[in-house]
Amino acid sequence: MRSLVRMFASGKECAKAIGVCEWALAKRPDFWQGANDLAALLSGFGRKEDLSRAMDLAQSALKRRPDEPVVLDTVGWVHFRQGDPKRALDYPRTAKARLPENPEINYHYGMALASAGDKDEARKYLEKAASAEGDFLGKAEAAEALKGI
To answer: Residues 93, 75: contact at Cβ < 8 Å?
Structure first.
């Protein structure tokens, strides 16, 4: 399931990726990875009105996996998308401590730092994200954000 979600998402076919997550959660409502992936997709590519549902899904995943870095990152990213920079910093800070080379976490943390006004620190994490090998959702956005700092 996760490979299919990644394949669709990396091909910018987010509606299909969301559909796969919805299907998986309908079959197994306690599937924390499905809840986390759907929350990430809705917060990254959904509409503003999807953010409340994204937070509910992210919080559900967090209850099941409170120490999982990707879940912490997703909760922080949803807070960021909701316009709450302080809470957006708390979660990815913990996530990046556990997965310091994860480019998506570095992107999210860098964006939260920039939003909070810490441009120098934001630049450091956005550069790590933009220069990471391979592609990930947000890589182009990280490079674009660097231009504005």
So the answer is: no
